[in-house]
Design a protein that fits this description.
Radius of gyration: 19 Å
Order of helices and strands: EEEHEEEEEHHEHEHEHEHEEHHEHE
Structural class: alpha/beta
Distance between the termini: 11 Å
Helix content: 25-40%
Largest sheet: 7 strands, mixed
Length: 322
C-alpha cells in the first residue's frame, strides 16, 4: 500500500510517499481502508521528533482518519497514535466512530482530534458536567489559535454551552470568519497584546479559562488573563518552547494550570465514550460541523505540513489518501 512516511527527523522535507507493507491487525484491532487523513500540529511535532512515544523513523505518519471498515464496510472516522496516513490502518474499535451520512470523508477526517480535544478542554475547565454559578454569570474563555482546527471546534462547542468567547489569531480576516461561527471577541495578536486586550475587554476582571497550546511565555501570560479561581488548560506547545511559569503567579487569585493530552485520554474508554455520547448528540442535531481550509493529495504532504507549521491554515488541513 502507499503511505506518507517520516523518513528521518526534520521539517516537511522529510515526508515521502512510499510503498509499505499492509498492516497486519493484532487481535482486537480493526482494519480500515483510509480515504482521508486530518493533519494536526502533533503530526508536525512527530516529524521533528518532539512527540513522546513515537517510534524511530521510518514510520508512517498520521493519527486521524476517515474511511471504510473492512468486512462489514461501514464508514468510520478514527484515531490512532501513528500510521493513519496510509491506504490502510489498523485501529482499536473503541476509537472508531460512525460518520454522519451527509459528511464527506474529508469532514470525517477533520473530526476526532479537534472535537474530542475541544470537548475535553471545556471539561477540564469545569464548564461541562457542573452546574453554572448561582450568580448567573456567563463563563468566559480565551481560545488561542482560534482559527485553527481545535479553535474552530471550541467555538462551536462554546456557543452551545453559552460561553462568552475571546479568541486570538494572526489576521482580521481569520477572526471575521470565526465570528461567523459564534466567536464574540476577536484579538489580532499581531496588532495588539492579547493580555492587554483581555484586561480592556473584560474591564479588568479577566476570563474563567484559557485554552493554551503555545508554550513559552504564553503560559504565564495566559495565567495573568484569568480572574479568580480561573484555569489555564495546556494542550500543546506550538512555539516549540517550554512553558515559562513561576507558580507563585497562581497564588493571588487562586488560579491553576491543567494539562490535557488526548494520547493519554484516548486510552480511557469510559471517558471517551462519555465525550462521544455528547458530541454525537450535538452532531446529529447539526450543531457541529468541521471547518476545512485545505484539502491536498498525499503527494503534497510536505506543503500541507508547511501550511500548518507556518500558521497559514484556516480550520483543518486534510490529506486525500484514496
Amino acid at each position: 500500500m502507499k503511505a506518507i512516511v517520516i523518513s528521518r527527523l526534520g521539517g516537511p522535507e522529510v515526508l515521502e510517499v512510499r510503498d509499505v507493507p499492509d498492516p497486519v491487525p493484532n487481535t482486537g484491532l480493526a482494519l480500515v481502508r483510509v480515504q482521508a487523513g486530518g493533519l494536526n500540529f502533533a503530526d508536525v511535532m512527530t516529524a521533528k521528533g518532539g512527540y513522546p512515544g513515537t517510534p524511530a523513523p521510518p514510520v508512517v505518519a498520521g493519527r486521524e482518519f476517515c474511511g471504510v471498515r473492512d468486512g462489514d464496510g461501514p464508514r468510520v472516522m478514527g484515531y490512532v497514535q501513528w500510521g493513519a496516513f496510509a491506504e490502510r490502518v489498523a485501529a482499536h474499535p473503541e476509537l472508531l466512530w460512525p460518520v454522519p451520512e451527509s459528511w464527506t470523508a474529508e469532514e470525517g477526517a477533520a473530526f476526532p482530534v479537534n472535537y474530542f480535544t475541544a470537548y475535553f478542554t471545556y471539561w477540564k475547565a469545569g464548564f461541562i458536567g457542573k452546574p453554572k454559578p448561582a450568580s448567573g454569570a456567563v463563563p468566559r474563555v480565551l481560545i488561542h489559535a482560534v482559527a485553527g482546527g481545535v479553535g474552530t471546534a471550541a467555538v462551536q462547542i462554546g456557543k452551545l454551552l453559552g460561553v462568552e468567547m475571546y479568541g486570538t489569531s494572526s489576521s482580521d480576516e481569520k477572526l471575521a470568519r470565526v465570528k461567523e461561527l459564534g466567536l464574540q471577541h476577536g484579538i489580532n495578536y499581531k496588532q495588539r497584546d492579547y493580555e492587554e486586550a483581555i484586561e480592556d475587554l473584560t474591564h479588568g476582571e479577566g476570563v474563567d479559562a484559557v485554552f493554551e497550546m503555545l508554550g513559552g511565555e504564553h503560559t504565564a501570560k495566559s495565567v495573568r488573563c484569568l480572574r479568580d479561581f480561573g484555569r489555564v488548560v495546556v494542550y500543546g506547545s506550538a512555539t516549540g518552547k517550554k512553558s515559562e511559569l513561576d507558580t507563585r503567579l497562581l497564588y493571588a487569585k487562586g488560579t491553576s494550570v491543567h494539562g490535557l493530552w488526548l494520547t493519554y485520554l484516548s486510552a480511557n474508554h469510559e471517558l471517551m465514550n462519555q465525550a462521544w455520547e455528547q458530541l454525537s448528540i450535538w452532531t446529529s442535531q447539526g450543531h457541529l460541523h468541521p471547518v476545512i481550509g485545505h484539502v491536498l493529495p498525499m503527494e503534497r504532504a510536505a506543503e500541507a505540513y508547511r501550511l500548518l507549521s507556518e500558521g497559514k491554515n484556516f480550520g483543518k488541513v486534510i490529506l486525500k489518501i484514496t
